[in-house]
From TrEMBL:
It comes from Herbaspirillum lusitanum. InterPro entries: GAF-like_dom_sf, HTH_MetabolicPath_Reg, Tscrpt_reg_IclR_N, WH-like_DNA-bd_sf, WH_DNA-bd_sf. The keyword tRNA processing does not apply. This is Helix-turn-helix domain-containing protein. PANTHER family: HELIX-TURN-HELIX TRANSCRIPTIONAL REGULATOR, ICLR FAMILY, TRANSCRIPTIONAL REGULATORY PROTEIN. Keywords: Transcription, Transcription regulation. It holds the Pfam family HTH_IclR. SMART domains: HTH_ICLR. Residues 21-82 form the HTH iclR-type domain.
Length: 267
């Protein structure tokens, strides 16, 4: 009997962390339900959004209201409270894109052997926000802070097309753009879009190198590596489910708009 009791105690100890994790996941699910909600939520809406029973939600709401993370309105609906706002402000003040993007660029450079950079859109221009150079003696480079026109390069294609809300679902699962010899006859590049909180477009994750050893059209493995890196970075920046049936096939912007020529280099 003593042996059986010891076994039971061991099982209970192993189960305890599982219950703690479950509680944490439920808490996060309930609070996350408010993120994209246009209006305060009632128990029915919360039940639909979380998959939890109303009785379970009510128990958690007692703690959320007590600690200021949720406020209950006069009509019994709920909305995020001041403590949640303070948490968001703390994140905003300490958040740095560099902490997320630079490691991704470094990993891409090491995985492919080519230089990597991250562009954001500045009206009709593209700004190199971060860059990591290839370790090879002969390489293509770009300086952080460089400003270029949005032209026919792969990063420009990404910035032009995927910065339009909803376009990410119109690419037929193709998210990797490529270009060769646009501004430099000796270099080629490939790029993929990165999204952030609320699935908002952030910028273009780009790999570029010398055409004699880097051929984007025949680099299925590198395109897949780039797409995976873009998806991982997007997830870390807060995007969820933004890539629709993603694959590493080449995205052709003109195929969707055959009557539209990309913006000229000097525009």
């Amino acid at each position: 009997m003593k042996k059986e009791k010891a076994s039971t105690n061991k099982t209970e100890k192993e189960a305890a962390p599982d219950r703690i994790v479950l509680g944490a996941e439920r808490s996060l699910a309930i609070l996350s339900a408010f993120i994209d909600a246009p209006d305060p939520l009632g128990l029915t809406e919360l039940e639909d959004r979380t998959g939890l029973f109303k009785s379970v939600i009510c128990r958690y709401m007692l703690s959320f209201v007590k600690h200021g993370y949720v406020v209950q309105r006069q009509d019994s609906s709920y909305q995020l409270g001041p403590r949640a706002f303070q948490l968001g402000k703390a994140f905003e003040e300490k958040f740095s894109y560099a902490d997320f993007i630079l490691p991704s660029l470094d990993n891409l450079m090491k995985a492919t052997g080519e230089s990597a950079c991250f562009y954001i859109r500045q009206q009709d221009m593209r700004l190199c926000l971060y860059a990591v150079e290839s370790g090879q003696s002969v390489k293509a480079t770009v300086k952080t802070g460089s400003l270029f026109a949005i032209d026919k390069t792969s990063s420009s294609q990404v910035l032009r097309f995927f910065s339009v809300p909803g376009n990410n679902a119109k690419s037929d699962g193709r998210y990797v753009c490529i270009s060769t010899g646009i501004n430099n006859l000796l270099s080629s590049s490939m790029a993929a879009p990165v999204f952030g909180a609320g699935n908002a477009f952030v910028g273009s994750l780009t790999i570029f190198g010398l055409s004699q050893r880097f051929d984007p059209s025949n680099s299925d493995l590198i395109r897949a590596t780039l797409l995976t890196a873009a998806q991982d970075l997007s997830a870390r920046l807060g995007a969820q489910g933004v890539y629709v049936n993603p694959n590493s096939q080449i995205f052709d912007e003109l195929a969707l708009h055959p009557d539209r020529e990309p913006t000229p280099v000097n525009a």
